[in-house]
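A quick word before the example. In earlier lectures we treated sequence and structure as two separate objects. From today on, think of them as two lines of the same record. Here is Sugar lactone lactonase YvrE written that way.
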Amino acid sequence: MKAVVKILDARTQQGRCPRWHQKSGSLYWLDVAGQSLNAWQAEYDRSQTLLLPEPSGCFSFFSSNSQCPDSIILASASGFFQIDSLSSGLNSGSKVSRLNRVSGDLIKSNLLDGRCDAAGRFWVGSTNFYGRQAESWLYSLDATLQLEQKAGPVMAASSIAFSPDSGTIYYADSAEHVIYACEYDLEEGVLANRRVFHRFPFGKGMPAGAAVDSDGGFWVAMFAGEKIVRLSPGGVMVEEVHLPVKYPTTVAFGGEANTTLFITSCRQACSSEELEQYPDSGGIFAIETGVMGMTEYSYSA
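And the structure line, produced from the sequence above:
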């Protein structure tokens, strides 16, 4: 049984998108409700916070050979932002500038999940918190900042990930408790032949943020399910790791050997009774998986 370690009592209202920054040995993550980007430097056990102009649910680092090294591209419902000066950490001197503005006709709900493919495209998924119709989509942002609808509509697009050979793209409709897998042409950025990868029963949590390991194992946070689940490359459940929080939100690999799975969680969703039962809600957790995670690709512009 894998040990779950709380590395930070962050009390995050709605934690999303943990990402390990190898150069600085830091874990970054977003608090959507708190409208902030956060960083924790493991060596010094030091945390930093940068307030954002609007709620944002996912981000990616720019690639080191791009025009904007040591920067972040940030996704929000109104478009995309850039955050500079990561080399000196998050502070009041970190510049946040708008890269583009996306029409409300294209994005009608929040962008809460995202990940780059091996070619540097930024794939993002939208989630409609209050709608009862399938109005959310999977999008791709290319190097020219053009955003294109790729798959949908669904109720809540999340769990975006890629297989180790980049031949498969995964995404979930969280509200329907299902994860899909599609054949993926990396060179053209085209997906095809969608199939059900795994369907979870209702009442035991819904799939949220995910990550893939180097063996093709698919790790996913089960929101309202108190656990992390690992699926085999064939979509069979092979492992569960129970957590001290009810609402885990997202997972990502990192650490010195890239074998640590970092987990964000949500405090905002807890009732007063749940906060008493799960006082660590909103914390950041880690487990040692014993397997290397896939490389977390960066955005190329």
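Notice the following. The helical segments are 272-277. We will return to this example when we discuss secondary structure assignment.
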